[in-house]
Amino acid sequence: MLAFLPYGIVARFGVGLGSLLYRIPSSRRRVVHTNLRLCFPDMSEVERERLARAHFRHVIRSFVERGTQWFGNAKSLERLVEVESAIDLSQTHTQPTIFVGFHFVGIEAGCMMYSTRHPVASLYTPMSNAMFDAMALRQRGRFGTEMIPRSNSVRHALRVLRAGKPVMLAADMDFGLRDSVFVPFFGVEACTLTSVSRLAKAGNARVVPFVTEVLPDYRGYRLKIFEALSDFPSEDAAVDARRITAFLETQVRRIPDQYYWVHKRFKHRPEGEPAVY
């Protein structure tokens, strides 16, 4: 139903619903405040409260806009998302390419729009609800995106890269200690996947960061694709993880209310350190 409504109405409804839901005490609201307190200790309580409220509006709005993103046609998505790219996207098949994204609230819109124009594969984490997972998988792949489950990602992704199709993935969430290292995120040790570095090395691929940001005044989104990281990967996966995390920090400082603070980024802690949630 939401896919057939004008985008401005859907977006404004999402903002209003987010404002309403923020007023209700919840575990996710506590997670947001914990993350902001850890990452921005010098920020006043008033500033963190303002940031948390703005972020909640963005998050709920992004969920509401899934109607447009999952069920809207290609033309509506192309009108919704403008693209700013530092590389020639028509040539990604000539060199193995990994697009590394980050969990800003607009990531879904950017990835969906990209798939309407260019062949691509995408790593995803299956959802616990089988019916919702099947719908998400079907709608995310309806423009031809090859969806790769994270549990079977390495071999499949390598085959895709070698066949000349770029792979999109995001490695900025806490998926557990396996194949991860602890690196500082805003000065706090965060369990961080090393998959980008390992896959790039195995596939001899360049790594190209991208961020999708929400534009002001309900003008949609901007998918910003950066230059490939130079001299990447290195011989040290931990160094590579720190480098990607430092890049992410720069982008978070630019649009802090749009990063996914509702995620338990510090769920796993270094040995001997107490839980924070």
TrEMBL record:
Uppermost EC category: transferase
GO cellular component, one term: plasma membrane
EC number: 2.3.1.241
Record has ATP-binding as a keyword: no
Cellular compartments annotated: Cell inner membrane
A GO BP entry: glycolipid biosynthetic process
Keyword Transcription belongs to the record: no
Pfam families in alphabetical order: Lip_A_acyltrans
The entry's keywords: Acyltransferase, Cell inner membrane, Cell membrane, Membrane, Transferase
Listed GO MF terms: Kdo2-lipid IVA acyltransferase activity
Protein name as annotated: Lipid A biosynthesis lauroyltransferase
